[in-house]
Amino acid sequence: LTILGIESSCDDTAAAIVRIGPDGTQILSSVVAGQTDLHADFGGVVPEIAARAHAERVDICVEDALAQADIALAGVDAIAVTAGPGLIGGVLAGVMCAKGLALATGKPLIGVNHLAGHALTPRLTDDLAFPYLLLLVSGGHCQFLLAEGPDRFRRLGGTIDDAPGEAFDKTAKLLGLPQPGGPAVERAARDGDPRRFPLPRPLLDRAGCDMSFSGLKTALLRARDAVVAEKGGITVQDRADLCAGFQAAVVDILTEKSRRALAEYLTLAPAQPAFAVAGGVAANGPIRAALQGLAKSAGATFHAPPLALCTDNAAMIAFAGAEALQAGHTSGLDLAARPRWPLDSTAAPLLGAGK
Length: 355
Ligand code: ATP
Ligand code: FE
Hints:
- The protein is α/β, with parallel strands linked by helices.
- Helix content is about 45%, strand content about 20%.
- Strands 3-2-1-4-5 form a 5-stranded mixed β-sheet, with helices on both faces. Strands 8-7-6-9-10 form a 5-stranded mixed β-sheet, with helices on both faces.
- The longest helix has about 30 residues.
- The radius of gyration is 20 Å and the shape is globular.
- The model has no long low-confidence stretch (mean pLDDT about 95).
- The site of adenosine-5'-triphosphate has 24 residues, from helix 4, helix 5 and helix 6.
- Its EC number is 2.3.1.234.
- It catalyses: L-threonylcarbamoyladenylate + adenosine(37) in tRNA = N(6)-L-threonylcarbamoyladenosine(37) in tRNA + AMP + H(+).
- It is found in: Cytoplasm.
């Protein structure tokens, strides 16, 4: 089974070819064209600029993905595309491209939930069976999910305000670091003292696994302003210490809430307890290390995709499309783009939407 995946929901245009065979799953190619430079002057992703860039680049990404995989379009068995959630203009650019290819080739079209793409990625790279506990932690989302099947996710808890990726990006912006903020903050934090600026860990002692990150951002802003008021500016060391303090708080929140989510998951007595983490923030070294340690102490296996498969890519969309196809789902050519599409929704099928 050879699947073409297309992704264009935020600021990365991506295409990939994934093959599922008797001897496992292979990523034959994975092309990602980022847009960081296009949005750099605006301090965030500008939806209109993103949509235009996706429309201009998506065909080229598909051609590159096919060329790198050394196959022709006719050699593809199905076309999977992100149908939401995300910035509607970008999603539409990908969906229209996929519909054109499906129409031209007569191959099945599969509309994929972007979050299902992230959530299933640990199965793309590891031998991981359902049900597993998943922490989906990205630029726009943060939730604990019980992954019961390729289109069955039960939410155990999650952020009540911001997503950690957003908090990393805002922290970078406040401290004059480049976007995307996550990698920049992680790098700066390596030389920092996490104890110099003790930032809050909201909801840490509250039962359940809901989280909050907005107070952390405000506290960081105050800490920065206090340094600026005292010295007239911030030094490289101040910045490193602020980043380290921020990252340590995120690690503590995610670890403590994961502990609670794991305890809840383990009451289900899964045959092979497994804890997976996915989404852009799962690329963070200290977060991965802390969660790995936690899984080990709880007697669960730990699964974190390689860094390039944590952030947005189309291999995860191709793989989620393959899972949908194998479950018998495809979409019609009337597939609609959905700006909002919760992963734990029971109202609409998560994969193969539109039919
Ligand atoms: P969503 O998937 O929720 O719709 P998105 O697709 O924009 O949002 P992803 O691409 O999954 O988000 O993740 C991007 C986010 O991950 C950004 O906020 C970025 O700062 C963050 N991120 C990337 N690398 C790291 C890192 N090393 N440490 C922390 N955060 C990171
Ligand atoms: Fe994403």
